[in-house]
Amino acid sequence: MTSSVPHLPSVDIIIPHFKRRDMLERCLDSLAETRYPAMGIIVVDNGGTEAGLVFMVKRYRNARLVRLGENRGYAGGCNEGLKHSTADYVVFMNDDTRHDPLWLDQLVTAAREDDRTGALQPKILSMKAFEKGQKVFDYAGAAGGMIDRLGYPWCFGRTFSAIEMDRGQYDNGREIFWASGVAMFVNRSLAEELGGFDGEFFMQMEEIDLSWRMKLSGYTIRSVPSSIILHEGGASLPGGSAEKIYFNHRNNIAMLLKNLGIPGLLLVLPLRLLLEVAAALFYLTQFPGSLAKSGAVWRAFGDTLRHWPDIMKKRRVVQRARQLPDRTVFKGLPLTLLLR
Description:
The chain contains 12 helices and 10 strands. It has 2 domains: 11-231, Spore Coat Polysaccharide Biosynthesis Protein SpsA, Chain A (Alpha-Beta Complex); 242-334, no CATH class. The model has no long low-confidence stretch (mean pLDDT 95). Strand 2, helix 2 (53-58) and strand 3 (63-68) form a beta-alpha-beta unit. The protein has helices spanning 21-31, 53-58, 73-83, 103-112, 127-130, 188-193, 206-216, 242-259, 262-283, 290-306, 308-321, 326-329; strands at 11-17, 39-46, 63-68, 89-93, 97-99, 117-126, 145-147, 153-155, 183-187, 220-231. The strands form 2 sheets. Strands 3-2-1-4-9-6-10-5 form an 8-stranded mixed sheet, sandwiched between helices. The protein has a two-stranded antiparallel ribbon with strand order 7-8. With 340 residues, the protein is α/β, with parallel strands linked by helices.
């Protein structure tokens, strides 16, 4: 959308949707309470067949529906929404979210303070815990995404499986490595320049890949804890499922191959290959579904080899556009989050 409010940047909320109309309606009801006036909403229906969806979306101010003939996942759905936006900023958002009324004001204010802002992330809390009167960080982003030099992501507020209570310990905004796709606020023109998300990722880690490419281009990623989002979580894929393991392992290795410089790749890739084998063996101990989980790692490795030419083509594009060396991008980050 183009802002009709003088002096306020326009923002489009892009929501890829697949089934679960009740969840989308709850999200849109919450967004309707947002106090930022220059906001539009683009719902991208990922190949769904739900009757009446267009009429439901039209009930909301400045909201529109884009339909796709197939499910392109979070990455492809967001990219399609990006094509339909002319706003100054966009927020790529999950539909299993609720929002503080001032969440967007806080993000826009932070973005206007620095014209080198690539992406921003709000504080993301667990919706289920919040409904029980608890303030617990959400697994998918928490207080801001980070990464170690081996390529394993973690967050302020959670590591592999440990999740912290929100006691205000991360209430000072800070530079982070990646902004969560639960609610990823980005500069629209920059996102378009970088080609949006990697559509081949489909889901899982696409926001880390895009954030990484932004940082390589010299832009900053920051947390804005005064902006608060609640996230239900597990709506697309249940945690620990073989399919989620597959996407996480496949996309993580592809991300390293695309974005690391040659010296970093020569150091990290042999270690990661050993760790991938270790992960496949570890999943054999995880019941139920141990064989499927272990097999997902091997399938991810096989698909990476099959798509090697395409990954290398994308790598050449990323490396040609690089403005910063790895030593700058990874400054202060540990080799492994276990040593953090």
